[in-house]
Amino acid sequence: MKLAALLAIVLLVPRAEGQADDPPGTKGTQAPDGLKALKHPDAAVRYKAAALLVRLGPVGKIAVPDLREALKDSNGYVRVKAAEALWTIEKTSPTVLLPVLVRALTSKEPDLRAAAAAVLGKMGAKAKNAVPPLIEALKDKDEGVCLEVVAALGEIGAVARDAAPALLNLVGEDKSILEPFVVSSLANMGAAIVGVLDKALADPVVQRRRVAAEALGMIGPPARPATKSLGLRLADSDALVRVEAAKTLGKIGPDAAPAVMLLTGALVDPIVFVRIEAALALWRIEGRVRSMAVLLEDLNDPSAAARADACRALGTIGPAAKEAGPGLGKLLSDKASPVRQRAAEALGNIGPASANLDHSLRKLLADEEAMVRITAALSLWQVTGKAEASLETLGKGLKDEDRLVRRYSVVFLGNIGKMAQSMIPDLMECLQEEDSGMRVAVKDALMSIDPDAARKAGVR
User: Fold this and answer.
1) pLDDT digits (tens, 9 = 90+) for 23-60
2) How is residue 302 annotated by DSSP?
3) Which domains occur in the chain, in start order?
4) Where are the extended beta strands (E) located within 246-317?
5) Are residues 394 and 406 in contact, defined by beta-carbon separation less than 8 angstroms?
6) Which of 121, 41, 46, 51 is nearest to 86 (CA)?
7) Mean pLDDT on 420-449
8) What's residue 457's pLDDT?
């Protein structure tokens, strides 16, 4: 089929009412045939035509001349969508697109400002020249716009490093909703802003100290220049800052060795979560477990959240934590389902050394909580090397009402690999799920279980 014909057919497809690409006040409008839609007198139709071209991607190259004309459209939404389509189709030069998008950042309409920021984010480092106006846009009073701008700066990455101080200044008691987005964006800027984050660890605003520590953790080993400051934060007045500091030192790894003495002191912190992260950090830095007693004691903490967290830490340590087997085994019957799940997961990560607890893990295959059942199923296979009972439980998980349970069942079957070949027909049925993430997980699992069978079935 010729490209022009294909494009005409796609543009003829009616859009469902209320779809995400509808600009304000255009729900239900349909695009007419072919490229004529880009010049239709109705702005809503022109917008929808550009939106469909975004979905087409490179296949829509025939529309590039018309899209370039659409950059001058009288409607701001059409201009921004045309810019997005041009970037998606052929990566049109930023010198052509940035003026349109930057102009939209100052629109009176919040939805248009947000849309422009989102497209700039898609352009990544190529949108470097838009960083100054995006920094200015961080002052936007509309929360939705501000979130899109924060995300865009993160996607632009290291070349947006000048925005780091402004991003940190967004964080405070009245803007807690922004914290996770600011953390992610700062982390995406990477090593280029370690110095800025290092300095922020001493900020008088506690939320900024916490964000700085968490972002450094996501940056990982390249954050080693901040080791000294992170060590000092182990004595911070805020427990969450201490938690993040310990966690980040562990993520930096062996290069954080200068902080070992301070981490050792944190093993007696009054807050259990600080103790757990300090113990885990010491293992990651030194490559040996010399704080097992702390984690074993915390398995008995009155707080279910703390018990679950201690299980998580022991599971992260894996086979080297084999002496924790008895303590973890007791928690398989804990009243709190997250604790049972984490205990099972930890035993699975420890592996065959936990094989003596297979009977207790089998009991969990009938647990009242589906996530506990499927976690126990994977762990049972990990400790025994036998898959029959595990496959039966995971097969039921594939049909669970909870999408998360189905998703993890797929992933766990992929982890089991070749021994899960009998589950291929059931997994193939899961390819019909509407969730694209689920379909990707299924394809990955099939390739892990039997690459040849998966390819013959058309899985790529």
Assistant:
1) 655 554 444 445 678 888 899 999 999 999 999 889 88
2) S
3) 396-460 (1.25.10.10)
4) none
5) no
6) 51
7) 91
8) 66
> What are the CA-CA distances from residue 223 to residues 113, 184, 191, 372 (Å)?
34, 15, 7, 36
152/426 Cα distance (integer angstroms):
40
Residues 6+ apart with CB under 8 A from 278: 234, 246, 263, 264, 266, 267, 269, 291, 294
pLDDT at 155: 97
Instruction: Retrieve residue 205's tokens.
Output: 């605003």
Which H or E element spans position 23?
none
Amino acid at 217: G
| 147 alpha carbon, distance to own chain's centre | 16
Backbone angles phi, psi at 201, to 5 degrees: -65, -15
Token pair of 412 as six digits: 């766990």
Round to whole Å and give the CA distance between 232 and 229: 5
Asked if pLDDT for residue 6 goes beyond 70, the answer is no
Could you tell me the two tokens for 451?
A: 């690459």
Q: What is the pLDDT of residues 224-278, one digit of tens each?
A: 999 999 999 999 999 999 999 999 999 999 999 999 999 999 999 999 999 999 9
Is the Cβ–Cβ distance between 344 and 366 less than 8 Å?
Answer: no
Q: What tokens appear for 260 in the block?
A: 């070992």
How confident is the model over 341-384, as pLDDT tens digits?
999 999 999 999 999 999 999 999 999 999 999 999 999 999 99
Give the span between the Cα atoms of 370 and 364, in whole angstroms. Answer: 10
Report the b/e string of 171-208 with b at 16+ CB within 10 A.
beeeeeebbebbbbbbbbbbebbbebbbebbebeebbb
Burial code (b: 16+ CB inside 10 Å, e: under 16) for 265-289 equals ebbebeebbbbbbbbbbbbbbeeeb
CA 55 – CA 20 distance, rounded (Å): 12
Q: Is 45 exposed, middle or buried (0-12, 13-18, 19+ CB in 10 A)?
A: buried
The secondary structure of residue 255, as a DSSP letter, is G
331, 354 Cβ separation under 8 angstroms: no
